[in-house]
Amino acid sequence: MAQRDVVFPPGRQALYERNRYSPAIRCNGLLFVSGQVGSREDGSPEPDLEKQVRLAFDNLNGILQAAGCTFDDVIDVTVFIVDPEPKFERIWKVVPEYWGNAPHPTLTAVGVTWLYGFDFEIKVIAKLPEATAD
């Protein structure tokens, strides 16, 4: 097996190593980003929902930047929301602050019962800058 081309955001490598997963992998012109949550520096959940969503996007953007990408390079998004019915509108008020320009990426939203103490998680696939030819 070829070695994985892992992308680590600055200052959080120990957190990923402790939890035994890669934040993102470059492969065939794409960046596959693991689910990002609104974790504080120590990995604990931010209790305020809107702040948690902002932190999740900040953590996502840190990984995208480490790979030379922005949210405008994102082509596919999956979000996971614990108990989405009462939370969706509050979450979706925050999303446009980070979402990027139209046309927007594809989106799949999934309601879940548990996210390790978090209420929101976002994972994406982005096109790497050096892979811009169609």
Automatic annotation (TrEMBL):
It holds the Pfam family Ribonuc_L-PSP. GO terms for cellular component: cytosol. InterPro entries: RutC-like_sf (IPR035959), YjgF/YER057c/UK114 (IPR006175), YjgH-like (IPR038743). SUPFAM superfamilies: YjgF-like. GO terms for molecular function: deaminase activity. It comes from the Bacteria. This is Enamine deaminase RidA. It comes from Alkalilimnicola ehrlichii.
